[in-house]
């Protein structure tokens, strides 16, 4: 298979950068921005409290700010970045997929999933994706551009608002988990993604105050960025989208494997686990007659067990959510069960992901593709 790969660390071309937003800035940068607008520095904390704690952006609700300053501060530091195109719901209203239009017309998606013990938000980090994985709807679309930190954060703030207002089935609640598993390759937009992680984990009112242990950053295997993330001092969960244990097949399924091979990627993941003491999740889409062979389960178990025996890793098998017209489809349930059995027999903790949202174009990129 011949696939043209981008220079994954390059910033994709875009016509105009989105305007600056409060969520793009650190606390110090917010204070500087506020004083540059002729306001006292403490207004930055007030604005942060409204955005991250009270979850409001309407100047009329910011009654602790001088009436003469509200509109200016909001216009300069809380400009609208995302426009809701549509929401689709399933699971009795506990799963909501949102399609967003960015200021340049690009489409991205986020998903809110409410469970009995937590609420998870799946967010996009890029409009499209340049990794070209052939079974992924987003990969088929190609990369449009990187998203900014604030554009990423806004997806979660919208979900947090909906939960706080009781708009999601189950009554008022809050976001507990965030997974960077929507559109895009997070590690190819590293600076903005780390900025968003910091906004999510910064204590209120500087950020949303979500535990780093409740945040998962996924990657198809950009080894230098995995190593960089290990040194950030933020103990997020690393999810490695592996999808094949052998280079021959992974070169086809995950074309970036032509740059960093399976063993290199697994070594980086093992290093991340060693440095952070956080268990790595291996994501593995189960594709019928492609990567679901029993011998591949044995090989995967062997490779993972060879790198450590202290429970450094967990395999998350994902029944493929096929895209319209695709030749790729989910594995036969019997083959899936055998794959699980062989991994567990090899000492590897393994689960099968709860698949939600198939009836609402649940696979990342499907809803955007249907509306483009």
UniProtKB/TrEMBL annotation:
Gene3D superfamilies: 1.10.150.530, Aldolase class I (3.20.20.70). GO terms for biological process: rRNA base methylation; tRNA methylation. Residues 115-359 form the Radical SAM core domain. Its main location: cytoplasm. Binds 1 [4Fe-4S] cluster. The cluster is coordinated with 3 cysteines and an exchangeable S-adenosyl-L-methionine. S-adenosyl-L-methionine binds at residues 184-185, 218, 241-243, 321. It comes from the Bacteria. One of its GO terms (molecular function) is 4 iron, 4 sulfur cluster binding. Keywords: 4Fe-4S, Cytoplasm, Disulfide bond, Iron, Iron-sulfur, Metal-binding, Methyltransferase, rRNA processing, S-adenosyl-L-methionine, Transferase, tRNA processing. InterPro entries: Aldolase_TIM, Methyltransferase_A, RlmN_N, RNA_MTrfase_RlmN, rRNA_lsu_MTrfase_RlmN/Cfr, rSAM, rSAM_sf. It is found in: Cytoplasm. One of its GO terms (cellular component) is cytoplasm. It holds the Pfam family Radical_SAM. The keyword Acetylation does not apply. It is an enzyme of class 2 (transferase). Its cofactor is [4Fe-4S] cluster. The active site is at 109 (proton acceptor), 364 (s-methylcysteine intermediate). The keyword Transferase applies. Residues 1-20 are annotated as: Disordered. [4Fe-4S] cluster binds at residues 129, 133, 136. Its EC number is 2.1.1.192. Reaction proceeds by a ping-pong mechanism involving intermediate methylation of a conserved cysteine residue. Belongs to the radical SAM superfamily. RlmN family. This is Probable dual-specificity RNA methyltransferase RlmN. It comes from Kribbella flavida (strain DSM 17836 / JCM 10339 / NBRC 14399). The gene is rlmN.
